[in-house]
Each structure stands twice: as C-alpha cells, then as structure tokens.
Amino acid sequence: MGIPSDRAPASEPRADARFDPRFDPRFDPRVTPIPRRSMLALLGVSALGAASLAAVLEGCATPPPITVSLDVDVAALPVGAPTEVAFTMTVGQAVVDGSTWLVKQADGDLIAFDPRCTHATCAYRWSDEADRFQCGCHDGRFALDGTVLAGPPPRPLDRFPIRQTATGIEIDVPASFAAPKASLG
Ligand code: FES
Fold first, then answer.
1. Geometric angle at alpha carbon 138, from 132 and 142, rounded to 5°
2. Residue 3: what pLDDT?
3. Could you tell me the strand order of the sheet in which 124-127 lies?
4. Is the CB of residue 137 below 6 angstroms from any atom belonging to ligand 1?
5. What share of the chain is helix, strand, coil (3-state, %, to 5)?
6. CA 46 to centroid of ligand 1, rounded, Å
7. Whose CA is nearest to atom 1 of ligand 1?
8. 3-state class (DSSP) for residue 104
C-alpha cells in the first residue's frame, strides 16, 4: 500500500531541523477537516439518538388521570365534618376500589382528599372526638385541611382535583391509584 502523498513517513528525516509536529497544521485538530462521509454518519447517529430519546420520554409520560363521577348531594354535606365517599373505577382491565374524604368548607368550597396516608399509603379515618384525621399505621395525625399535626407523614394529605357538576361531583384520580393499605388501628 502506498503512502499518501501529503504525509511523510515518520522515519523520514526532515530538512527543517526545527520541525515540531505540535505546530504543524496537518496535525492540528482545529483545522483538520472531518471527511464528508464521517460527518453524515455523525448526523445520522445524532438523529437516531434524538428519536430514541423522544421514544423513551413518551414511554415515561404519566398517563392522564381518570375522572370519577360521585353521586353526592353537595347541599346536604355538613360543613367541617369530613365525609368518606366510596367509588369504583376501571384502569385498563382492572377494577379498582377507592374512596375520597370530602370536606365542605364554610364558604361552600369542597376538598377531596386522597384516602391514602402520605407516609406509607395506609387508610386513615376522621375522629370526631379528636377533631382530626388519624392514621393507625404509625400514628400520623392530620388537621381538617390536611396539614400534618403529628407523626411521620412527610407532607399534607394529597388532594384530588374536584369539580361540581349539575348532578354531583367529579374528581380526577391518578391512573396509578391503588386502594390504601389496611390501617393497623
Ligand atoms: S402510613 Fe400513616 S403514619 Fe405511617
């Protein structure tokens, strides 16, 4: 195989004794052109990478929540006294039993609490005597507005988005929802 005409063999003595390959533009990566074929290959790899990333992100996208209709007479709900309302929803082929704690505020607005304790997803209950929500698994306590009063829960009670309709209430439940664990107390 012949030697490219623009490259001298490394062993060939040079006439210029001051030659230093570090300063030879033929070895300078800043001025060495990328062959056209290599450039097209790089562009192809970049396009493929972008397409793969888009596919991965699409696969990771959170599925939209499921709207659940609750047959509730809003006018009959007591103010400041939480009411648990059970529902059933279908996720794919599965039927999931769930519930929500509805709290009617003095101004008539409604809150729909997720029935799972924010510590370890146990079911909690409302205590009229203690005037707070209580979780028996690890003694978590929540106020009427869902804020943490005591115990290990790391955040207030989660809420479902809620809307009043002509016939009752609609709530948006995450598609990932699962029934709470049985409370220990
Ligand atoms: S699951 Fe409720 S306090 Fe631990």
1. 20
2. 47
3. 124-127, 132-135, 140-142, 148-150
4. yes
5. 20, 30, 50
6. 47
7. 120
8. strand
Window from 7-11, 38-42, 43-47 with minimum mean pLDDT: 7-11
Decide whether any atom of ligand 1 lies within 6 Å of the 85 Cβ.
Answer: no
**pTM, full prediction:** 0.69
Query: Sorting pLDDT into bands at 50, 70 and 90, what band is 2?
Result: very low
Cα of 141 vs centre of ligand 1, distance in Å, is 9
Atom of ligand 1 nearest to the CA of 140: 3
Q: Ligand 1 within 6 A of 103 CB?
A: no
Concatenated DSSP letters of 120-137: T-BBEEEETTTTEEEETT
Would residue 108 be called left, alpha or beta, if left means φ above 0 and alpha means ψ between -120 and 50 degrees?
left
Torsion angles phi and psi, residue 13, rounded to 5: -65, 145
**DSSP H stretches of helix in 30-183:** 36-60
CB distance 114 to 159 below 8 Å? yes
